[in-house]
Every structure is written in structure tokens, then in C-alpha cells.
Write a structure and sequence with these properties.
By secondary structure, the chain is of the alpha/beta class. It has helices spanning 30-58, 67-72, 77-85, 89-96, 136-146, 175-185, and strands spanning 125-129, 151-156, 166-169, 189-191, 198-202.
Length: 207
């Protein structure tokens, strides 16, 4: 026995020949399915004809472009970029022109320094007193001997009157000796021909 309440389908006689009547409407007829297939095929054919004839005239889906539009289209960006990157002849000439080379300054040749002969304390020195002060020649010759100079002649001056004192030498190789003696006695050293060796003349006013 079923646990569910009885409905109208349970009232069908068990001896009735109409079995499965309640399922008859659930089974579609073959004629309805064939019509549906025909309808779908016709629609597909119409859509295909429209896509083949109508769409090309509307310019949809075609790869061809209008020649006038192509002529008015701007130049590609690559072409303009290459044109902008190409330098003008003036710029190239400026870049290729060498920079001016500064004029080289001639190096001045060093001035040769005259070689001063060394002091030779073996050369004898003559001392003459032209000041008129008695004993001045002997006093100066003693100072020179104490300084290491060999003194030869010590006498009074017999030549022309002298206006001042001086250390006279006759040749450049005696310049160092005359300058050293003049510095010690405080009188100038003068190169004067006619003197033999280094000669000290003590003029008026020398003390």
C-alpha cells in the first residue's frame, strides 16, 4: 500500500486498454521537430546571404581602405622620428670642425748665471796709504793678515792724490778676492787695469 493519498490517476480501471494515457502529452511529435530544423536552416541561410552581399557594401569586415583617406593620413611616426633625428649639414659641419688649438707659449731660455771665481787666499795683497795718516797702512795690513790674507807690499801712496779708498784688481779671476777684502775693510772693490794683483789704497778720511 502506498503511503501517499490517492489522486485522479489512481482511478483508472485496471482492465482498461488505455495504458499510459497520462504520458501522451510529454512525447513531442516528429512533425514538430522537423519543422524546427527547417526554420533554423532557413534563418542561417538568410544570415549568410546578408553577410556575403550586404556587409561588403557597408565597408564592414573588408581590408581595403579609401585611397583619398590614405593620401590624407599623416606620415608614420617612425618616418617623422627618423627625419627629426637626422642632423642638418650645418650641425654636422659645426660638430666636425676642430676646436682651436691654443698657441703654444715659447719657454724662455734661462739666463746663464755668471760663474764667480772662488776666493784664493794664496794671492798676495798690496796695501798703500794715501790718507796722510802715519801708520794707517801698517794697521790695515795687520788686520788683513789676521783674516788670513797674505800681505806683500805695505807703503805710502806715491801716485796721484786719491779722493777716496778702494780695492783695485786687474783681472776677473781676482774679483772674488777683491770683493771679500772690500767687505772686510768697508770700501768698494773696483776692476781697474794697471794694478798688479789686488791692491788696497787707503784714501783721505779712512779710519
Amino acid at each position: 500500500m502506498s503511503q501517499y493519498p490517492r489522486d485522479e490517476f489512481d482511478k483508472v480501471p485496471e482492465t482498461s486498454a488505455r495504458q499510459g494515457v497520462h504520458r501522451e502529452r510529454l512525447i513531442p511529435s516528429r512533425s514538430n521537430g522537423l519543422g524546427l530544423l527547417i526554420t533554423v536552416g532557413v534563418l542561417a541561410l538568410l544570415i549568410g546571404l546578408a553577410a556575403y552581399f550586404v556587409l561588403p557594401r557597408l565597408g564592414i569586415g573588408t581590408g581595403s581602405t579609401d585611397p583619398s583617406a590614405a593620401a590624407q593620413a599623416p606620415a608614420p611616426a617612425s618616418a617623422s622620428a627618423s627625419a627629426a633625428a637626422t642632423p642638418t649639414p650645418e650641425v654636422e659641419s659645426d660638430a666636425a670642425s676642430p676646436s682651436p688649438t691654443p698657441a703654444s707659449t715659447p719657454t724662455p731660455s734661462p739666463t746663464p748665471t755668471p760663474t764667480v771665481p772662488a776666493i784664493d787666499r794664496t794671492q798676495p795683497v798690496a796695501v798703500f796709504n794715501a790718507s796722510g795718516v802715519t801708520g794707517l797702512g801698517a794697521s790695515v795690513s795687520g788686520r788683513m793678515t789676521a783674516a788670513g790674507w797674505p800681505v806683500g807690499t805695505v807703503a805710502n801712496w806715491a801716485g796721484a792724490p786719491q779722493q777716496g779708498s778702494g780695492v783695485y784688481f786687474s783681472s776677473p779671476e781676482l774679483a772674488a778676492n777683491a770683493q771679500e777684502i772690500g767687505a772686510q775693510l768697508g770700501i768698494p772693490a773696483l776692476e781697474t787695469p794697471g794694478f798688479t794683483g789686488v791692491t788696497v789704497v787707503l784714501g783721505p778720511g779712512y779710519r
